[in-house]
């Protein structure tokens, strides 16, 4: 389905012993995120986030059924009674091959897509079965993400100013050259003030912090760190990518109510514990794939050139530390059925 892609031959993900995912799986996953991005991309700027999300879900689920693994969605569109497709617990893949956990986000940033704002992505992460942290008890977590230079230096328990000075020192920058991605939420007003008082810059994110988090762990994006409270599922997806970059994500569960707090305690969670990258994803063999829907710090969005649709994706494998940026050219008429066009 990928016409003229940078990597045009996608061989089946035959695994050693057929019990763990192998390197070929990474490129199969790109086909899935490309499909979701192209389908959702038709709805960029039309103001209908539900139509965009529905189209992306359809496309992602269809392509997932062809992937050589026995997958279970552990982070999806919701429970079965809430979402008809890609719900938590749904089996995906062709049923053969390795058993894996699957985290899907057909559009990370549905509102960004609807309004035509930057940093919307189609996202997919895969890890060995049972290795992804169970986010069901608490839906939000406090996060700190940065690249490999400062990975062993930062600590979520330290004051914001101290972490920023450590990042600046590790990167050989002045603190006023640092840019910190933060979700634009009222709850972050004190954090934003702390960052600015420390002398660093803020880069505000409207929605979807996966792109911002990964950009913080990649060179050349203009983002040096991500801080603040965001979705726990997004944190787990990010951890799959961070394992390949050599950066770090630290998280601390952030209940939004007494009921959620008690639910977390009953589930055995220590709410004071700082979760590391390895706590969020225990496997050393995990995969992350994303395709840009709109332009952003991490990837270019879906573009149209005559009868072609152009995409840019990133795919990572933690076991080898391999990161590939994949450019694709696709024949637009072959994708219209996924886009739910008017």
UniProtKB/TrEMBL annotation:
GO terms for cellular component: cytosol. Substrate binds at residues 108-110, 140, 185-187, 207-209, 231. Its cofactor is Mn(2+). It catalyses: beta-D-fructose 1,6-bisphosphate + H2O = beta-D-fructose 6-phosphate + phosphate. Mn(2+) 2 binds at residues 105, 108, 234. InterPro entries: FBPase_class-2/SBPase. One of its GO terms (biological process) is glycerol metabolic process. It comes from the Bacteria. Keywords: Carbohydrate metabolism, Hydrolase, Manganese, Metal-binding. GO terms for molecular function: fructose 1,6-bisphosphate 1-phosphatase activity; metal ion binding. Transmembrane segments: none annotated. Pathway: Carbohydrate biosynthesis; gluconeogenesis. NCBIfam families: glpX. Belongs to the FBPase class 2 family. This is Fructose-1,6-bisphosphatase. It comes from Arthrobacter saudimassiliensis.
């Amino acid at each position: 389905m990928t016409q003229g892609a940078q990597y045009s031959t996608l061989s089946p993900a035959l695994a050693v012993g057929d019990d763990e995912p192998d390197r070929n799986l990474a490129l199969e996953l790109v086909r899935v995120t490309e499909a979701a991005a192209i389908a959702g991309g038709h709805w960029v700027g039309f103001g209908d986030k539900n139509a965009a999300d529905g189209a992306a879900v359809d496309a992602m689920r269809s392509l997932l059924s062809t992937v050589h693994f026995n997958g279970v969605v552990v982070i999806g569109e919701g429970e079965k009674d809430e979402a008809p497709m890609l719900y938590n617990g749904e089996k995906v893949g062709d049923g053969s091959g390795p058993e894996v956990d699957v985290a899907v986000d057909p559009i990370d940033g549905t509102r960004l897509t609807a309004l035509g704002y930057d940093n919307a992505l189609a996202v997919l992460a895969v890890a060995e079965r049972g290795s992804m942290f169970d986010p069901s008890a608490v839906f939000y977590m406090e996060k700190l993400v940065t690249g490999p230079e400062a990975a062993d230096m930062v600590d979520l328990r330290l004051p914001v100013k101290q972490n920023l000075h450590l990042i600046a020192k590790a990167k050989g920058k002045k603190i006023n050259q640092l840019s910190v991605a933060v979700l634009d939420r009222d709850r972050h007003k004190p954090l934003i003030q702390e960052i600015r008082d420390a002398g660093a810059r803020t880069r505000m994110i409207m929605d979807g912090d996966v792109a911002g988090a990964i950009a913080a762990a990649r060179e050349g994006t203009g983002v040096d760190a991500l801080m603040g409270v965001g979705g726990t599922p997004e944190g787990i997806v990010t951890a799959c990518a961070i394992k390949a970059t050599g950066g770090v994500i630290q998280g601390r569960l952030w209940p939004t109510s007494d009921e959620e707090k008690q639910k977390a305690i009953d589930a055995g969670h220590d709410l004071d514990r700082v979760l590391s990258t390895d706590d969020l994803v225990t496997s050393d063999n995990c995969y992350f794939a994303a395709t840009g829907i709109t332009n952003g710090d991490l990837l270019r969005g879906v573009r149209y050139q005559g009868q072609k649709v152009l995409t840019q994706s990133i795919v990572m494998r933690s076991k080898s530390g391999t990161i590939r940026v994949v450019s694709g050219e696709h024949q637009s008429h072959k994708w219209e059925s996924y886009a739910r066009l008017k």
